[in-house]
Amino acid sequence: MATLNDVAQRANVSKMTVSRTINHPEQVRPELRSAISQVMRDLNYQPNAAARALVSRCTRVIKLTIFEDMDTTEPYYMMLLAGIANELNRHQYALQLATRNSYEVGECDGYILTGIRDEDYAWVKQLQQPVVFFGRNLKGYDYVDTDNYQAIRDSTMYALHRGYTRLIFIGIAADKPFELDREQGFRELMAEKHLPAEVVRLANHGHVATKYIDEHWATMTPNTAFICASDRLAIGIEDGILLHGGRVPEDFGVIGFDGMLLNQVASKRLTTMKQPLEAMGQAAAKLLLTKINQPQPEQTKVIVKSKLSIAESTR
């Protein structure tokens, strides 16, 4: 295994210069930095992350802190974790997963936070390390998210283009920025089309959505599309329609939001707004590492576009 001394000898520089290239590259002339980096690649030299941490007084650990309950029936967080971990690995950082019961255990160089609750902001405010939120927040913190507003507008427009004349938005009963953005996207597009904006807010569980259809089936008219704020809700809506003998997609269309597996196991595979969670995780890790190395006072917002995945639940 190549050593720091091997790199220094091959590049004809001092070990101090090699160390500076690794730990403080901004202090080394670009042409010299490039030459030393090439030697490191030629020798397959891997800097000792533990030693670097001691020198720089950092932990080389990033915490992904999840404040909401994780559902093991879908790979939502697995895709997010993969994106974050792969990006951190490229920079020799380790990822530590923390929950609401363990977020204060151990040291780290920065936090990626998701599922934050109002009562948690006091804890966030006293953090000394850089923070990036997964999901839009109203407190001025940097974040990575998809454009929830535009995504629902796109879903709604698609349903109208497929000829459905009555549209119902099935939202999540939570006053969170992502949910408010999705509902606003639906309401504003319907207003622009001079159509009534029917909005229902339910707990984010499939059986709750199925019960809603069961209780309101007598009012459900053919040529209706349901624009849902999650795939869980969409599957519940679809199941309720099919249990009552309704035809999907001929008479009733259903569009979900997420596209992380549940859409594939529905009775009729869901048309859904698919979030690129792995890419979003990668973007969150990149943003946090940038903040660690070059703190910025202004709020940074990174938006990753979602894409409608068309399947069997719409015409």
Automatic annotation (TrEMBL):
One of its GO terms (molecular function) is DNA binding. The keyword Zinc does not apply. Residues 2-56 form the HTH lacI-type domain. InterPro entries: HTH_LacI (IPR000843), LacI/GalR-like_sensor (IPR046335), Lambda_DNA-bd_dom_sf (IPR010982), Peripla_BP_I (IPR028082). Keywords: DNA-binding, Transcription, Transcription regulation. It comes from the Bacteria. It holds the Pfam family Peripla_BP_3. SUPFAM superfamilies: lambda repressor-like DNA-binding domains (SSF47413), Periplasmic binding protein-like I (SSF53822). The keyword Chaperone does not apply. This is LacI family DNA-binding transcriptional regulator. The lineage of its organism: Bacteria, Bacillati, Bacillota, Bacilli, Lactobacillales.
